Amino acid sequence: MKRCMFVDDSSVIRKVAKRILGGSEMIVIEAASGLDALEMCAADMPDIIVVDGALPDVPAVDLIRRVRAMESPIRPQILISLVELDIASIMRAKRAGAQGYLLKPFNRPQLLERFRTLKSAPDSASLSNSRKSA
Predict the structure, then answer these.
(1) CA atoms within 13 A of residue 87's CA, in its CB half-sphere
(2) What is the Cα–Cα distance from 122 to 113, expressed in whole angstroms?
(3) Domain Response regulatory spans what residues (predicted)?
(4) pLDDT in tens, 32-46
(5) Which of 61, 70, 63, 51 is nearest to 13 (CA)?
């Protein structure tokens, strides 16, 4: 089962992501700060990490670099989450080791499509069936 970490100081963003992605095929874990995320990654590296581009405690690029520097058998796919399309921020994140970006606020189709492009999304039919009430 894949594990995805959403690192965002907004509890709303984390809860929406968890409702959309969480289920029988993916575990979604939450970190409210960059420091929490680093501790959690050191203890148990997730398969996917979505990092808020505007964390108050640790710059997103530093967080990405620090995760990439950790010794782990898992090399997570990392996305930076932005409120607007900012090519310079995306390029800095990619140079630090991110695979791409996610724009927020996101909805179910946008988030599922982004995860499909990572080849890490749970099957959309099973998500649709199990998450219709979300």
Answers:
(1) 0
(2) 11
(3) 3-119
(4) 999 999 999 999 999
(5) 51
